[in-house]
Each structure stands twice: as C-alpha cells, then as structure tokens.
C-alpha cells in the first residue's frame, strides 16, 4: 500500500513539472545601457597672444627719372633683408561647437629694421653700391576661422585660416653712397593680408586654455618711400616693397566665458527596471 502511494505522488510531481515546462515564459526587456553624453562646448571667448616673428621681405624697387636726358626707368634693390621682430595681439571670438570657432584679432608687429643695397654709378661716373636703412612696423586686423580636430585628454589640435588687412608704416629711408647720404620720406598704406595657422590648445582650467602654434602671414606689396630730386634734374624714387612673408611661433591664453568652456559630462538618465511581458 505504501509503495502504491509513493508511486502515485511521484507520478503527480513529474506531471506538474512537465506541465510547467510547457507554459509560455515571460519576455524580459533589458534596461538600456547608460551612455555618457559629453556636453557641447560653445560661447564667447577672449584671447591674447605673443609671437617671435621671422620677417622676410620679398624685394624692393624704385624709379629713376632724368629730366635732361628724358630717361624714365626703374632699378631693383640688389640685396634686401629684415631683422626678426616680435608680435603682440588681442582678439575676441565665439566657439560654435566642439569643432568650429571663429575670432577677430588685432596684432602689432614691433619695429623691424630693413637693410638694403643697390648697385649703380655715382656722380663721378664710377660704379658704386649704396647702403639703405629703414624701419617698418605693422598692424594686422584679421577675421579667422578654426577647425578643432578633437580633444585628446586636455589637448585639442587645430588648423585655421584668416583674411584681412595690414597697415604697413615705413620710417624714413637713409640712402648712403660715395656721393653722400640722402633721406627719403617714409610712407604708410593698408595692404591685403591672409594667414594660415596650426597648433594646439591645452586646458589649464575649465575656462582657461593655453594656445601654442605656428602662423604664416602674407602681406601684399605697396608704397615704401618717397622720391627726392637733385639739381642735376635726376629724381630718385618713389620706392615700393614687394610685400612680406612672416613666419611666427605663437603662444597665448584663451578665456572662455560662462560654463561654455567646461564641457561638462551630462548626467545619464536612470536605468528603468526590467519589464516582464
């Protein structure tokens, strides 16, 4: 009798287990993974820069006229060079997002010395060479745009370009040869200018960045010095330079206003509980 009872109980348990296995199981919806969202950087900023400027003049020439002979021509400086200088600048701009920003900058290049020499004939008819000395200072006003190439730790490399104008201010030109020393008045003029930049910014704080890089400035040619006339009827000048190529190693600081420079990590939404269907 006991054996029969235990057999019946075992059969009932096996049947219940088989029936439970046949029941449909609930679907479990997995909670979405929490993803970190980086806030977009944007906002106004101010900048200040200083640079070591390697100055290259692309040449210079001047006109010569002789009222007695009717000669009207020109001559080119046989040798020209510029002393290197320093440039200081300020600017204001706007960071549109993590990859694009733009600013307007005003830069002043300190006075640089020009040295030149010409070959020709002095008043005694003998060949001679001159020594020409002047000085130039430059203001550049540029509108610039930059592409930030992603942030790696605290470093953000970038490339950029700018376009604008430069005010080139020449001092008097001193021209010395065997006949003596002659002074030409200097001139000033606005010239078309463009720039190319590359570098990297480094996060010092949430809002303050250090900026180091290279900039190339191309300045068009223009008036350089005025003419002078002699009793012999000879007029020398005016003179014209062929423009400048300026290579600069730059360093500066950029301050981003408000919370736009912080790039906070946005809080991920709380994960929902599993849902059984």
UniProtKB/TrEMBL annotation:
Q: Where is the Outer membrane protein beta-barrel domain?
A: 8-235
Instruction: Say if the entry is tagged with keyword Signal.
Output: yes
Give the matching InterPro entries.
Beta-barrel_OMP (IPR027385), OMP/PagP_B-barrel (IPR011250)
Listed A to Z, the keywords are: Signal
Signal peptide coordinates: 1-20
Q: Which domain of life is it from?
A: Bacteria
Q: Which Pfam families match?
A: OMP_b-brl
Task: Report the protein name in the record.
Answer: Opacity protein-like surface antigen
């Amino acid at each position: 009798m006991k054996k029969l009872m235990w057999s019946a109980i075992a059969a009932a348990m096996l049947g219940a287990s088989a029936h439970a296995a046949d029941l449909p199981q609930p679907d479990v919806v997995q909670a979405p993974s929490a993803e970190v969202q980086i806030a977009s950087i944007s906002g106004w900023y101010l900048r200040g820069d200083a640079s070591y400027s390697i100055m290259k003049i692309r040449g210079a020439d001047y006109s010569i006229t002789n009222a007695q002979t009717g000669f009207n021509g020109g001559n080119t400086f046989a040798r020209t060079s510029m002393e290197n200088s320093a440039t200081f600048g300020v600017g204001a701009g706007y960071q549109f997002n993590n990859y694009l920003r733009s600013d307007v900058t005003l830069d002043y290049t300190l006075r640089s010395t020009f040295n030149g020499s010409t070959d020709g004939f002095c008043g005694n008819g003998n060949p001679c060479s001159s020594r020409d000395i002047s000085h130039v200072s430059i203001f550049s006003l540029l509108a610039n745009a930059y592409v930030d190439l992603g942030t790696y730790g605290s470093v953000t490399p970038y490339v950029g370009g700018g376009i604008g104008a430069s005010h080139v201010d020449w001092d008097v030109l001193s021209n010395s040869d065997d006949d003596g020393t002659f002074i030409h008045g200097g001139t000033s003029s606005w010239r078309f200018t463009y720039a190319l930049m590359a570098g990297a910014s480094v996060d010092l704080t949430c809002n303050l960045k250090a900026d180091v890089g290279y900039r190339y400035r191309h300045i068009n040619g223009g008036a350089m010095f005025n003419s002078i006339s002699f009793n012999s009827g000879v007029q020398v000048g005016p003179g014209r330079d062929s423009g400048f190529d300026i290579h600069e190693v730059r360093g500066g600081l950029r301050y981003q206003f408000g919370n736009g420079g912080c790039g906070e990590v946005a809080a991920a939404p709380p994960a929902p509980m599993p849902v059984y269907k």
